[in-house]
Design goal:
The complex is a heterodimer of chains A (576) and B (88). Chain A is mostly helical and 576 residues long. Helix content of chain A is 70%, strand content 1%. In chain B, 38% of the residues are buried. Classes of the chains: A mainly alpha (576), B mainly alpha (88).
Chain lengths: 576, 88
């Protein structure tokens, strides 16, 4: 069948499935809307969390970044998985025990302060909005390449789908569609990887294939890859540090702490019945995530090898431009791949030297999307990858939008402006807030700052520097006071934003970058995306110092802290 | 609902913290330790086609993370039962 028709069929079928689930799982109460009724099985919640959390950046961009960064790309692999260990050990069970609907609600109660709650809402909105922009861009890119509609139309279709099931079903609709989306995206990711691993190494398990020998030879795949990239003047694939060890350390820490502090991930653990389920559910989530995350480095290494061998089939003999394969032509049309014949010989030279290199643009994002074409896999696999990319972007966008909408309707409206509001009115308000959030995100999707993964990594830094430290100190210390928590959050997110803005421009407008993006100006050589770890340290330090000089929290707060540390008597997630 | 005495509650929390500390040391060692700080030394060792440090950074640390969470979840369930604070 024609690829185009097949893609429409597969993507259309997956959308029909999501909408069907949405109609079946309509939210009837605020409890349904915010925490899916609180009765989601831990394995089901783990799967939904995996889809919620694996975004367009994980699915589309990550393998591409690893492919071009080699060992340096490990920061994403360790950072985006290691965070679940901190989440499972330090936050999830206690927040579940507390049993409220939103993250700012816990911060407001624990720090006995409306100001703390408002600051938490603002931090939550800043990181969620930064994150959702990346998803919107992912949706636009996937649509425009696979359905050959323009970026704007693709974005609009995606917004309509999310609108339908998120506004109708809230957390309940989102949870069940996310389970379906996980199945779609994991198949879409692993099937091409298995095929490619078989082709290259004759081993069907990509995780083993990457460490295995090339089919029919005694040469290890990674050894060959190291050799090829070095011949072209690039750094050895398996030892290529990203800037410095310290920078990699900070980047990994930022992503880990950020993962544990992202509100849309945390609220997923409010949906399980018990404290014990919150612990095991984090394990299931990470297991489901690990399937993709351990496959990604294999996809990256193998795709890089395939790409190099397409361009330089025999050492010293480059691909003749006029004989380039069909996928090369397809991606040239999108502008994500570009060739300039600098020496006029009609061949494609690829080199680390910018004066010689003729592959002037090779966008990270094409590695996963073009991978099946480069490996000449059947059309249905390519169609599946399109559906998978969309599933990843849609599921994360929906989770983020719910976190934003519940912060607005539950924390701002019900918590402060109109405490006497009825349940029905609050449900209506949360639907309206959701609709507004989708429109806002859509607008930012049309004018995105930077590329998808860049903004996503930044969101993690912001969450790491603001929300995580406040939650952790709230649970592990009964001494941290409201003044301490507020000062800590403001200082943490402030320092991080300031650092990012001074190097990347205020609100990402490059001309306003007063210190420039140049590495020589970076503090200890730490890049802006990795600065969240420093911001988190600042947050902890400021909060602890300020708490020392302010009055201790009241006795009721100490009781609250005692209460959340022990599981028994956890009631279902409840309202005030 | 079972009520722990203040002393029991402290003991429960201390046991929880000790388990947590142990697991976080492992968490730190496999990722920041083997994957970043000591990656060059470990890369001298081969694991099939993988350099060992590279393997920890891109594969091994992730497998260990999964095991850590399930282990914590099991041990805490046992601790909850021991102190009679499990939710049954």
């Amino acid at each position: 069948m024609e690829l185009q028709t097949l893609t429409y069929l597969v993507v259309g079928a997956s959308f029909a499935l999501y909408i069907g689930i949405a109609i079946w799982s309509r939210a009837g109460s605020t409890r349904d809307f915010y925490v899916a009724g609180g009765g989601v099985h831990p394995i089901a919640n783990g799967m939904a969390t995996a889809a919620d959390w694996m975004s367009a950046a994980s699915f589309i961009s990550m393998a591409g970044m690893i492919a071009f960064m080699g060992y340096g790309g490990s920061v994403f692999l360790m950072g985006w998985t290691g965070g679940f260990v901190i989440l499972a050990l330090l936050l999830a069970p206690y927040l579940r025990k507390y049993g409220k609907f939103t993250v700012p609600e816990f911060i407001g109660d624990r720090f006995y302060s409306r100001t703390a709650r408002v600051v938490a809402v603002i931090c939550l909105i800043i990181c969620s909005v930064t994150y959702v922009i990346g998803q919107m861009k992912g949706i636009g890119v996937a649509f425009s390449r696979f359905l050959e509609v323009d970026y704007g139309t693709g974005l609009l279709v995606g917004m309509c789908i999310v609108f339908f099931y998120a506004v109708l079903g809230g957390m309940k609709g989102i949870t069940y569609t996310q389970i379906a989306q996980y199945c779609v995206l994991i198949m879409a990711y692993t099937i091409p990887a298995i095929f490619i691993s078989l082709q290259l190494t004759a081993n069907p398990i990509p995780q083993l294939g990457l460490g295995g020998t090339l089919a029919g030879t005694d040469t290890y795949l990674l050894e060959k890859l190291d050799l090829i990239v070095q011949d072209l003047g690039f750094h050895e694939y398996t030892t290529d540090f990203r800037l410095s060890g310290l920078n990699m350390f900070a980047y990994t820490a930022s992503l880990m702490i950020g993962t544990a502090g992202l509100p849309h991930v945390i609220i997923r653990f409010f949906t399980v019945p018990k404290v014990r389920d919150a612990r095991s559910s984090a394990g299931w989530a990470l297991l489901f995530i690990a399937i993709l995350y351990t496959t990604a480095p294999a996809v990256a290494g193998m795709a890089r090898l395939n790409l190099m061998q397409t361009i330089e089939p025999v050492p010293g003999e480059y691909l003749v431009y006029e004989e380039r394969p069909q996928w090369f032509r397809n991606w040239e049309k999108t502008g994500l791949l570009a060739f300039a014949d600098k020496n006029g010989d009609g061949r494609v030279q690829y080199s680390a030297d910018p004066d010689v290199n003729e592959m002037v643009t090779v966008d990270n994002d094409i590695i996963v999307l073009a991978n099946p074409e480069i490996a000449q896999l059947p059309n249905w696999v390519i169609a599946l990858v399109a559906a998978g990319g969309l599933a990843a972007a849609l599921s994360t966008a929906a989770g983020l939008l719910l976190a934003i909408a519940s912060a607005i309707s539950h924390d701002l409206l019900k918590g402060m402006i109109a405490p006497g509001i009825s349940e029905r009115a609050e449900l209506r308000a949360s639907r309206l807030a959701m609709a507004a959030a989708i429109l806002g995100a859509g607008y930012l999707g049309f004018n995105p700052p930077g590329f998808a993964a860049g903004t996503v990594a930044l969101a993690f830094g912001l969450a790491a520097s603001s929300i995580f430290p406040a939650l952790m100190m709230g649970i592990f210390s009964s001494r941290v006071s409201k003044e301490g928590a507020v000062a800590g959050m403001v200082a943490g997110i402030g320092v991080t934003l300031f650092y990012v803005f001074q190097h990347m421009g205020i609100m990402f407008i490059p001309s306003t970058a007063f210190l420039g993006g140049m590495p020589p100006n970076w503090f200890l050589g730490i890049e802006p995306n990795a600065f969240g770890a420093v911001g988190a340290l600042v947050n902890f330090a400021v909060a602890l110092a300020v708490s020392r000089f302010t009055a201790a929290p009241p006795a009721s707060v100490r009781e609250l802290v005692e209460h959340i540390r022990v599981p028994a008597g956890a009631s279902a997630a409840r309202d005030h | 609902m079972p009520q722990l005495s203040a002393e029991q509650a402290r003991a429960y929390w201390r046991r929880n913290l000790a388990l947590m500390a142990k697991l976080l040391v492992i968490w730190f060692t496999v990722s920041f330790g083997c994957g970043i700080l000591f990656v060059e030394q470990l890369n001298q060792i081969q694991l099939g086609g993988y350099k060992l440090g590279f393997w920890f950074a891109q594969q091994g640390s992730i497998y260990v993370f999964v095991l850590l969470i399930f282990y914590y979840s099991r041990r805490m369930a046992a601790l909850d039962r021991e102190f009679g604070v499990d939710e049954e």
